[in-house]
Amino acid sequence: MDNKMLKKSNMILTSLKSTICSFFSLYNSLEQKEENQNILRAIVLFSCSGVDAIVKQLINDTLEYVIEHDEGAFNQFKQFSTKKIQNKSETDFNLLTELLMCENPRKILISVLKKELTQNSLQSAEELFRVASYFNIETKKLEPDDKKLREIFKVRNQITHELDVDMTSSEFTLRNREKSKVKEYSDHLLKLSENFIKLVSAILIEKEAIDEVSQIEDL
Questions:
Q1: What is the pLDDT of residue 196?
Q2: CA-to-CA distance for 207 and 151, rounded, in angstroms?
Q3: Residue 75: pLDDT above 60?
Q4: Which residues contact 62 (CB under 8 A, 6 or more apart)?
Q5: Mean per-residue pLDDT for 51-79?
Q6: How many CB atoms lie within 10 A of CB 214?
Q7: What is the average pLDDT across 135-150?
Q8: pTM
């Protein structure tokens, strides 16, 4: 079961690794410094976007199963649902009406959670840790070095929102990116992505084994 549910996430990870490798090959083939810098910036952005895509795929393909089978994940989902129902906005009154009218309220609430987790960019440490909590994955297990992760996303934001212009310099010059540092960033994000998939896979394997034992005992 777990391999099938993780197939798309693993495919994205494989594509991400291949693309990053191609970017570095292109970097090595170019001689102009300015072009090389743009390649390094592209690697940072693509690596961060890859994490976003992988984690969102995990949410869409596996979160419902994890919530249904893992007590910690279910409790996180329960807290989310309680807050949603207690919210007095017009949108959530509509949600309450839908819950009262449907045959499977839990499924509706899970879809609401999945939509909320995937509608925005998952390109910050806080957002990734928030998602992990709904899988009942501890922050330290997912990311032992959150300081490094925050550094990477800070660089990502400098490139995305400031076009990598050093606002502290008198001439507003572009920041200089080092290949070794960018390689460190991309490797870190690839490892994070692999670890997220691995941790979710462990949950799926454990819960599937428990399901099989229960089915045997029921015979």
A1: 98
A2: 35
A3: yes
A4: 5, 6, 135, 200, 204
A5: 96
A6: 9
A7: 96
A8: 0.90
What DSSP state is assigned to residue 191? H
Kindly state the tokens that stand for 51. 């994490």
Picking from 73-77, 81-85, 118-122, 193-197, which range would have the lowest pLDDT averaged per residue?
A: 81-85
Q: What are phi and psi of 174, to 5 degrees?
A: -75, 145
Q: How many residues does the chain have?
A: 219
Asked if residues 16 and 8 have their Cβ atoms less than 8 Å apart, the reply is no
Only one residue has tokens 């949108």, namely 91
What CA–CA distance (Å, rounded) separates 7 from 174?
A: 40
Look up tokens 């007590």; give the residue.
71
Q: Please give the Cα distance from 46 to 181 (Å, whole number).
A: 15
Residue 76 pLDDT greater than 90, yes or no: yes
The DSSP 8-state label assigned to residue 212 in this structure reads H
Do residues 95 and 84 touch, judged by C-beta distance below 8 A? yes
- Average pLDDT in the 4-20 region? 97
What is the helix, strand, coil percentage profile of the chain, to 5? 80, 0, 20
Contact 24, 30 (CB under 8 A): no
Distance, in Å, from the CA atom of 135 to the CA atom of 114, rounded to the nearest integer, reads: 12
